[in-house]
Every structure is written in C-alpha cells, then in structure tokens.
Amino acid sequence: MTTAIFTHQDFLAHDTGPGHPERPERIAVVWEVLDRDEFRDLPRFEAPEAEVEQLRWVHDPAYVDAVLNAVPDSGHARLDADTVLSPTSRSAILRAAGAVCAAVDAVLDGTAKNAFCAVRPCGHHAEPARAMGFCVFNNVAVGAEHARKRRGLTRVAVVDYDVHHGNGTQAMFWDDADLFFASTHQSPLYPGTGSMSETGVADNIVNAPLPPHSGTVEFRQAMERRILPALEEFQPELILISAGFDAHARDPLASLNFTGPDFEWATRKLVEAADRLCGGRVVTVLEGGYDMVGLAEGCAAHLQALTRA
Ligand SMILES: [Zn+2]
Fold first, then answer.
1. pTM of the shown model
2. Of the residues 14, 59, 124, 125, which is catalytic?
3. Any catalytic annotation for residue 125?
C-alpha cells in the first residue's frame, strides 16, 4: 500500500482572472512535483464531483444553490473581494470537495495507506454561508463529514498548517465535540481569527498563532507543545491535514519562514500520530501556497513524509 493521489484536469481550468495569486499555474506546479521520479509511480485517481447533499452537510443549502447559480456563462463572477468564479469553475469547485471524500474512502477501504488531494480552489476559509479568501466550498470539512455520515466514523481531526487561519473549518467544527480543529498560522494576518482564546465547545479547537517572521523553532514548538498533545488526547479515528504551503519563507502573501524540512517534519509527526491513534489513516488536502518554488518545495517535502510512512 502506498500514498494515493486525487486530482483532476479541471482544476487547471478554474480561472480566477489576470494577476490573481490563486492561479492555475499552482496546480501545474504540483503536477510537476508528482511527475518526479520519486512520485511518478504513486497511484492517481480522478477526483469525482461532490454531490450537492455532501456540500450541504457543512454549508447552508441556500448558499450551495447560490454558488452553483453564480457560475457565469462568460467572464467572471465575484463571490467576495478575492473569490472568483469563471465558466469552467463548476467542475473544479465540486471536484475539490469530491476529491477529499474519495480519498477518505480509499484510506478507510484500505486501498491506500494515506492520500494527498491536489486540488484548487482551496477551501479552509469557506464558512457555512460565505465564500472567502479564494475558497468556495470547504473541501476538508466536507471530507470530515463524509467520514462520519457515510463511513460510520465518529471522531475526525483536521490539522491546518496553512499560513492563514482556517476560519471556515473552525466555524463548522466549533459546536461539535467529536470534531477537532488545530491550526498554526501567522497572526496578525488575514482573516484575523485564530486567537488562543478560541477553543470551541469542548476545547476541540486549538489555535497556535505565530508572530510574523516565526520559523522552524516557533512552528515546531507549537506543534510539539500544543497541537500534538491535544490531538493525542482527542483520539481521532481519522486525521485530515489542511496542507497549505504559504508559510514558506518565499511566499509573497505572508511573513513566516518555514522551509521544506519543516513541512516534511510536520507531516511526519502527524503520520506518526496517526500510526499510534488511528491505524495511520491520513488524508491531506492542498490549501494555499503562492510562490511557485516554495509551493513545489513544500509539496515535495510533504509527499516524502507521506510516502515514507
Ligand atoms: Zn493560506
């Protein structure tokens, strides 16, 4: 058994318009990493479209309908200041969430040891009734509910090391003691949430904000002192990772100083936790990463940790 990859050609067609940082080139860069000798033999699967019902597990039904109706016939439609739909976006936004559900199935069925979803747009800022920060549907949260509603799991954890706080995932998990969300992120930074005092109904939310210019030492301390012990205590049956690579030192949207080895280390620590807690069941989902060299370096390091698990 090895790491399975879930992706789709239509992620390249989601057109956010000229000058947008969340651009098609991002997924092409990830595919280039996947084509390297060390990863080219990993089994790849086409991401299916999520069903509307699956989206409605975490989003208001009216929001899901409004988004699908907002996909334009030509040009661009803006869901918020920086979240854009093009005529080719429908397939991408449905498949980004569908990828996580299919990856959860593969890992729970035992056909893959773990899985990486190479998707765009990202999802962790999407709230129950609001698109935000390039995110339309909350891909990782849909995957978590798929594991519970269709596969009989009870306790699911999401760990998010994207440089931005995953406000959407936090909002969806806040009231449910059987869902766990932990995040390292730069603070202050968009979207402004994620303080240590935000802890959910049952201490099921763990935020570890990092000041600008934090790097290896601060990140690893936050993981080892706060996030990994809380994850252990939560006893998940499945661990999902919101894998953003915009905390990389080269990233233009933020000011943290992570390097490739930090992403390898964090992924390995989470895989080791999954080995102890839940039979190694890990599904990871691409979130941000806006410097093409940093994105490639982070992705390669992440995949090394997954494939060597
Ligand atoms: Zn981000």
1. 0.98
2. 125
3. yes
